[in-house]
Amino acid sequence: xxxxxxxxxxxxxxxxxxxxxxxxxxxxxxxxxxxxxxxxxxxxxxxxxxxxxxxxxxxxxxxxxxxxxxxxxxxxxxxxxxxxxxxxxxxxxxxxxxxxxxxxxxxxxxxxxxxxxxxxxxxxxxxxxxxxxxxxxxxxxxxxxxxxxxxxxxxxxxxxxxxxxxxxxxxxxxxxxxxxxxxxxxxxxxxxxxxxxxxxxxxxxxxxxxxxxxxxxxxxxxxxxxxxxxxxxxxxxxxxxxxxxxxxxxxxxxxxxxxxxx
Length: 262
Fold this sequence. Notes:
Blueprint: H1 7-26, H2 38-49, H3 58-93, H4 99-114, H5 117-128, H6 132-157, H7 161-168, H8 173-206, H9 215-224, H10 228-261
Helix pairs in contact: 3-6, 3-8, 3-9, 4-6, 5-6, 6-8, 7-8, 8-10, 9-10
């Protein structure tokens, strides 16, 4: 019978689990810490009770469409830039590049991914004010690093036969990359990119907590005013938005898989 987790993978998973238990012990995680006071219980009842009767005020409905459109515009703009920059960086991060070129780009790739988009947003909002461009740049930087890493890994893992054949025919490195490597990973790249688009929609909404008029802005305002029914109203809108795009991306992935199999 084939093992689900071979020896090395099983050992690696066990090490991660062990590290998790040790980390929990070091920071003194205890179940009794989850016991809230009377005020916390009452607040939780009010908050979760409002989930059964969501409501968006008339003033909120007036800005809701704009907030949804703004959320999507920021997400798509950031993902579009990240794809272009990430793919360009992935080319220089692949194993077929000379180490003198590959290593600096991999260091840059790691630096881009190491800072969360909210920290970038704090910096760029201070520089550009409450402008959508600040949110787009804040999302583009870490997403570029993430795309570069995943795209490069996908390209490095493909079969080298087609690339070697083109090299033998005298094709240049970029031509081999474009015609022998990218087509083999295109479906996987699209699949992962669509997943990151869903993440970008959520991240774009969260930018509203920084003051940009996305869905998160209205959600944050309602929460600060303790209007929990309205908080849930905006949460449900965000959930529907993500589910719709998840369904759309699933259809695209299915068609790509069918096309590859054909």
